[in-house]
Design a protein that fits this description.
The chain is of the alpha/beta class. It has two domains: 20-50 and 89-202, Rossmann fold, CATH 3.40.50.1100; 56-87 and 208-394, Rossmann fold. The chain has 16 helices and 14 strands. The strands form four sheets. Strands 3-4-14-9-10-13 form a six-stranded mixed sheet, with helices on both faces. A hairpin with a 2-residue loop joins strand 1 and strand 2 (14-15). The chain is globular, with a radius of gyration of 20 Å. The structure holds pyridoxal-5'-phosphate.
C-alpha cells in the first residue's frame, strides 16, 4: 500500500485541501516548502537533536510482564507516556515548529480541545521564542482548567471561543478564521493527522518515529523487526498512524485501532467515527465523520477528552476501506477497566486515551508466541480526577 498521498493530497477518495479560497496560496506555500525540506539534512539534524535531548527519545519499549502473563502472549508497551509533556504530541509539534521557523513565520496559532495539543504547542513556542495563540472553547476552558494555567505559564495567549457548542470544533473554526485574516505571518499548527493537505501526511511522518523505533527495539529485544499485532487508540489518528507507519506493508503484522465508543455506538453518546460516521468534509479534508443526514457535524462523546472528536484523519479512512487496519469500538467502561488493570499488573497508570488501546487485548485470540505492541500514547496524571471518581475497589 502506498504510504504517500497523491500530489493533491488524496489517499484514494479521502484527503485533499478544502479551505477558503484566500487560504489556498498559504496551503500551497506550505505544501511546497514542506516537500522541499522534509528530507533535507539540516532539518533532519535539528529534528533529531530536539527529539533526543528535549523530548527524551527514543522512548523505551517495555516488556509488560503482568499483561503478558494475563493474556498468554508477549506484550510490549511503547512508552510515549515518557515523552516531555506526557504524550506523543511533542513529536509532531517539534517538526512543525522547525518548519514554521524555516518558513519565516512570526506567530503560531493552534486549536485545542482538552488542552493537550495546546500545551504541547505552547511548550515548543516557549522553546523557540514564538508568540503563540491557542483557541479553546469557553466550555473546554472551564472543564480543563489546569491545562489553561499550563499554557499561560508557558507564555501562550489562550483565546476563549464563545460560539457554537464552545468546544473543539468551534475552536477549530475560530483558528481558521484567524488564519484567513492573517495569512502571511501566521503558521497554523495542527495537532493530529487531519486538516488540509499536507498536514495529514506531515503529521504521520513526524509521528512515524514511533514505529521506526519499535522496529529497531524489537529487533534487539525480541530478535524480530515485525510484531504480530500493533494496537493504538485513535482520535484524529496521529499516535496510531505513527505506531502503524513502518508496518503498513508488513503482511505479518495485524494493525488494530481502538476508537472511543463512549457510552456505546448505538447510544448517540459516542466518538466511534468508523462505526457510525459517513463521508464528508471536516477540518479542511474529506474523510469520515459523525454527522446528521443534512451534513451538520455531531458533537462526539467519550470519557477521554483526547478521543472526543467527531472526525478521523483521511489516511485512516483509506486504510479502513482497504481493510488494512481494523477499527474496534471501545466503551468508556472497557477503557476504565483496562486502565485499572495495567496500573496493578505492570505499575503504569495510562492516559484514558491509551487505555482504549489496552482494552483491545482481551478481545484478541492470542497465541503464546504472538508479539503484541501496544502504543501507550500518554500518561494518566491528567486523568486522575476521572479515575478518582471511580470506586477503585469495584475495578479488577
Ligand atoms: C491527543 C491524544 C490522543 C489522541 O490523538 P491522536 O491524534 O488520535 O493520537 C491520544 N492519546 C493521548 C495521550 C493524547 O494526548
Amino acid at each position: 500500500m502506498n504510504l504517500n498521498p497523491d500530489s493533491n493530497g488524496f489517499y484514494g477518495i479521502y484527503g485533499g485541501a478544502f479551505v477558503p479560497e484566500v487560504l489556498y496560496p498559504n496551503v500551497l506555500e506550505l505544501q511546497y516548502i514542506y516537500s522541499e525540506i522534509i528530507g533535507s539534512k539540516a532539518f533532519v539534524h535539528d529534528q533529531e537533536q530536539l527529539l533526543r535531548h528535549y523530548v527524551g527519545r527514543p522512548t523505551p519499549l517495555t516488556f509488560a510482564t503482568g499483561l503478558s502473563e494475563k493474556y498468554g502472549a508477549r506484550v510490549y508497551l511503547k512508552r510515549e507516556d515518557l515523552c516531555h509533556t506526557g504524550s506523543h504530541k511533542l513529536n509532531n509539534v517539534i517538526g512543525q515548529i522547525l518548519l514554521a521557523k524555516h518558513m519565516g513565520k512570526r506567530c503560531i496559532i493552534a486549536e485545542t480541545g482538552a488542552g493537550q495539543h495546546g500545551v504541547a504547542t505552547a511548550t515548543v513556542c516557549a522553546l523557540m521564542k514564538f508568540p503563540c495563540k491557542v483557541f479553546m472553547g469557553a466550555k473546554d476552558m472551564t472543564r480543563q482548567q489546569p491545562n489553561v494555567f499550563r499554557m499561560r505559564m508557558l507564555g501562550a495567549e489562550v483565546i476563549p471561543v464563545q460560539s457554537g457548542s464552545q468546544s473543539l470544533k468551534d475552536a477549530t473554526n475560530e483558528a481558521i478564521r484567524y488564519w484567513v485574516a492573517n495569512p502571511e505571518d501566521t503558521y497554523y499548527l495542527i495537532g493530529s493527522a487531519i486538516g488540509p493537505h499536507p498536514y495529514p501526511d506531515m503529521v504521520a511522518r513526524f509521528q512515524s518515529v514511533i514505529s521506526r523505533e519499535i522496529t529497531t527495539q524489537l529487533t534487539s529485544q525480541e530478535g524480530c523487526a515485525n510484531p504480530n499485532y500493533v494496537l493504538a487508540c485513535v482520535g484524529g489518528g496521529s499516535n496510531a498512524i505513527g505506531a502503524f507507519y513502518h508496518f503498513i506493508n508488513s503482511s505479518k503484522t495485524r494493525l488494530i485501532a481502538a476508537e472511543a465508543a463512549g457510552k456505546g455506538v448505538g447510544t448517540g453518546y459516542t466518538a466511534a467515527t468508523m462505526a457510525v460516521g459517513s463521508v464528508g468534509v471536516i477540518h479542511g479534508c474529506k474523510t469520515r465523520l459523525i454527522q446528521t443526514d443534512d451534513g451538520q457535524i455531531v458533537e462526539a462523546h467519550s470519557v477521554s477528552a483526547g478521543l472526543d472528536y467527531p472526525g478521523i484523519g483521511p489516511f485512516h479512512a483509506a486504510l479502513r476501506d482497504a481493510n488494512r487496519v481494523s477499527y474496534l469500538s471501545i466503551t468508556d467502561t472497557e477503557a476504565l477497566t483496562a486502565a485499572f488493570d495495567v496500573a496493578k499488573s505492570d505499575g503504569i497508570i495510562p492516559a484514558l486515551e491509551s487505555a482504549h488501546a489496552l482494552a483491545v487485548l482481551p478481545k484478541l485470540q492470542l497465541k503464546s508466541t504472538d508479539v503484541v505492541v501496544v502504543n501507550l500514547s500518554g500518561r494518566g496524571d491528567k486523568d486522575m480526577e476521572t479515575y478518582a471518581s471511580i470506586d477503585a475497589t469495584s475495578m479488577p
